[in-house]
Amino acid sequence: MKMKKSILSLALFALLFTACTRPSHPKTSSPEIQTVTLQFVDFSAAVGPGPSYTFKDSAGSTIYFNCNNDTTTSFFITLSEEEAKIAGDYVGGDPKLKGKWFKIHYQPKEVVIGCTAENKGIVDCIVKAELIADSIKTDFPQP
After folding, report:
1. Is the alpha carbon torsion for 81, 76, 92, 10 positive or negative?
2. How far, in Å, CA of 39 to CA of 61, rounded?
3. What is the pLDDT of residues 47-76, one digit of tens each?
4. How confident is the model at residue 105 (pLDDT cuts 50, 70, 90)?
5. Is 85 helix (H, G, I), strand (E, B) or coil?
6. 69 in a domain, yes or no?
7. Which band of pLDDT confidence, cut at 50, 70 and 90, is reported for residue 37?
8. 41 domain residue, yes or no
9. Does 140 map to a domain?
10. Is residue 76 assigned to a domain?
C-alpha cells in the first residue's frame, strides 16, 4: 500500500511539474541565442518561480536558468523514496552531470511562472546544452 501511495504521489508530482512549468508562446520575437561555458551545480524543483538549474562560470559566479527546452539533456533525476525524504523533494540534480562543464545556448523567453496562466515572466531558458568536459582548469594565472 505504501509503495502504491509513493508511486501515485510521484506520478501526480510529475504531472503537476510538467503542467506548471511548460513555457507559453512568447508575445514578442525571441532575442538572439547567447552561448556561455558553465559548470552544472544542481537542480531544484522549487515552489514559486519554478525549477532552477544552477551553474557556475569559470570565475565562480552562480548563474540560474528557469527552464530547459533541450530534450537531449535532462539535468535532473527522480529520487528514491529515501532520498526524497532527506531532500524534501522527489527530484534532484543528476549526480552524473554535477561538476561537468557544458556549452549552454540560451535565450530569454516569456513563460508561465507557477500554475497560473496569468502569472508570466521573462526567464533565461536553455535551448541547447552540450557536454564539453568533465573539468576545466579554473585557477588561471592573473596577468
Report:
1. negative
2. 10
3. 556 788 899 999 999 999 988 999 999 898
4. very high
5. helix
6. yes
7. very high
8. yes
9. no
10. yes
In 1-143, which residue ranges form alpha helices assigned H by DSSP?
2-21, 81-87
Provide the residue range defining the domain that includes 43. 2-133
Least confident residue range of 12-16, 62-66, 74-78, 100-104: 12-16
Distance CA 56, CA 28 (A): 29
- DSSP E strand boundaries for the chain: 34-44, 52-56, 62-65, 67-68, 76-78, 91-93, 101-112, 120-133
Residues 6+ apart with CB under 8 A from 98: 40, 41, 42
**Based on the structure, what is the number of domains in the chain?**
1
Handedness of CA 41, 43, 44, 50 (dihedral sign): positive
23 vs 64, higher pLDDT: 64
**CB count in 10 Å sphere of residue 28:** 7
- Could you tell me how far CA 2 lies from the centroid of its own chain? 30
Quick one: average pLDDT of 98-116?
86
- Distance separating alpha carbons of residues 85 and 68, to the nearest angstrom: 26
Q: What whole-number distance in Å separates Cα of residue 93 and Cα of residue 109? A: 23
